[in-house]
Amino acid sequence: HGMASMKQITNPYLPLYEYVPDGEPHVFDGRLYIYGSHDLAGGTRYCQGDYVTWSAPVDDLKSWRYEGVIYRKDQDPLNPDGNMEMWAPDVTRGPDGRYYLYYCLSFYPAVGVAVSDSPAGPFQFHGHVKYPAHIQGGKTLAEFMPFDPAVLTDADGRVYLYYGFSPVKEMALPSPEELQAAGQSFFDDEVFEKLRSIQFSEGCMTAELEPDMLTVKDTPKMCVPGGKLAVGTPFEGHGYFEAPSIRKVGEKYYLLYSSQLSHELCYAVSDQPMEGYAYGGTIVSNGDVGLDGRAAPVYTLGNNHGGIVQAGGDWYVFYHRQTHGTEFSRQGCAEKITIKPDGSIPQVEITSCGLNGGPLAAGGSYSAAIACHLTDGTTLREIDYSDPVMKTQIQITEEARDGGEDKNLHYIRQIGGGAVVGYKYFDFQGVMALDLTVRGDAGGRLAVALDAGMKQAVGGADLALNGGGWQTVRIPVTVPNGVHALYFGYTGEGRLEFSDFAFVTA
Asked: What is the mean pLDDT of residues 107-111?
């Protein structure tokens, strides 16, 4: 997107047809690789695709290259028919110099491991994480909910595994019947029955692995408390839920995780890899909740999962956002972060310019789908699978077009009265008007402002759409030169759809 004359990148940082959530960024040999699960546009379950990876040079995070499918879900002997989905993975370079991929299959209690000679794959099945012979007879590790594995190969060659699923609510999972009523499904009756008997973890679990990258040296122990155990500790209100991600920064170990609030990635810090973790704070919320005291989300909240990485001298956090009004079509986003001299990481705001290194140029055209602010009266504070509002709220979606997925149309739908769509940030220079491509059945006013409250209005236009195809609405604006956020607010009747906008300059 953006101007042809100047290379730019937006959030999401991968092409809009790509859905790689749970992004774990790792630098290997001068390239940043992103490993995540693989959702589908309009998916009905989490992670319905095979694993893929994309990479970019560390000194040019605007140039992402598709590396292809790196591991198929039917490669695991537990899943020969591919019925189970592969959820959030992680990759590490082992002490032997090879690359090891750790993953789990839906809620199946096992951690799978695959191996490759290249960070770009393809990976081959290696085994399942297991106990040594003198503990539980060497059986597959199934305790404390093997889920969302993260792995670190330390400077001394020792390898550590982290995992765990620790919901605050008792069995915070909808039944297959409830899901069906909501038109969604992500596990069948058999898996659900197995789930009832699974013992969830009480927090984040960790264990050291042998150099075979499969055998734990001892029974896993908890290193960060879940929501229930966090009460009365510095972790209270932000206890571990899922999605651990481990990094070594200098001599400190940073454990990121999705908290009991689900939409935020928090971090804990220790001098040791397996114990002594102190609560640090929130790094990012996919609705900016908690940023400068914010309580109302700026984007529909959903689960979150990601990691931090240093590339080209700067640190970044990778996370994901929800599209299609569900949790099953998530896209990766990234923001620059600061690790302060005292080791703390202040919460960052979500933006449309992510890895761009600065604001986007206010020229040329952009897809409406790079919005980082998407609100209306129904914006959800938490994903509720049985809430029909999910299907009707304002959302980013995708429409198939001839010519391959890169030709598909990405747009915002169900924009009703009171909806606000926003972008951060643009560098305005001599902008006279904005051309919006819209369609729908709607009559009202479309206002342009520099703030989410629509108080700093800079232009507007009356709108009268009576069905039909896409059309261009020109809105004259008066915007002082400089860096600004950009918001569109609709007041009126009916619903409209919004596919892109272009800057008209003098």
From this structure: 90
The pLDDT, as a whole number, for residue 149 is 98
Token readout for 386 is 């049985």
pLDDT interval class at 132 (50, 70, 90): very high
Kindly state the helix (H) or strand (E) to which residue 441 belongs, with its residue range: strand 431-449
Q: CA nearest 18: which of 421, 404, 424?
A: 404
Of 22, 24, 85, 497, which is the active-site residue? 22
Encoding tokens for residue 364?
């040329």
Planar angle of CA 423, 21, 295, nearest 5 degrees: 50
Q: How far apart (Å, rounded) are the C-alpha atoms in residues 88 and 9?
A: 25
Please identify which of the residues 24, 76, 242, 497 carries the catalytic annotation: 242
**Which residues touch 136 (CB under 8 Å, ≥6 apart)?**
none
Among 228, 213, 2, 220, residue whose Cα is nearest residue 114: 213
Task: Tell me the C-alpha distance between 268 and 257, whole Å.
Answer: 8
Two structure tokens written together for 131: 């106990």
Provide CB contacts within 8 A for 97, sequence distance 6+.
none
Q: What is the pLDDT of residue 381?
A: 63
Give the closest residue to 311 by CA, choosing from 336, 331, 333, 332. 336
How does DSSP classify residue 210? Answer: P
Smallest Cα–Cα separation from 334: which of 352, 311, 313?
352
Long-range contacts of 388-391 (CB under 8 A, 24+ apart): 388/182, 390/182, 390/325, 390/326, 391/183, 391/325
The H-assigned helical ranges of 173-255 are: 176-181, 189-197, 227-230
**Among 264, 355, 369, CA closest to 323:** 369
Is 242 a known active-site residue?
A: yes
Q: Which stretches of 123-238 are assigned E, i.e. beta strand?
A: 124-128, 150-153, 159-163, 203-209, 221-225
Residue 4: per-residue pLDDT: 43
Query: Is residue 106 within 8 Å of residue 191, measured between CB atoms?
Result: yes
447: Cβ–Cβ under 8 A, 6 or more apart, which residues? 454, 457, 459, 460, 488, 489, 490, 491
Residue 22: active-site member: yes
What gap in Å lies between CA 51 and CA 384, rounded to an integer? 27
Question: Parallel, antiparallel, or unpaired: how do β-strands 360-361 and 364-367 relate?
Answer: unpaired
Ordered DSSP codes for 359-426:
PEESSEEEEGGG-SEEE-TT--SS--TT-THHHHS-EEEEE--TT-GGG-EEEEEEE-TTEEEEEEEE
Residue 193 confidence (pLDDT) above 70: no
H/E element, 301: none
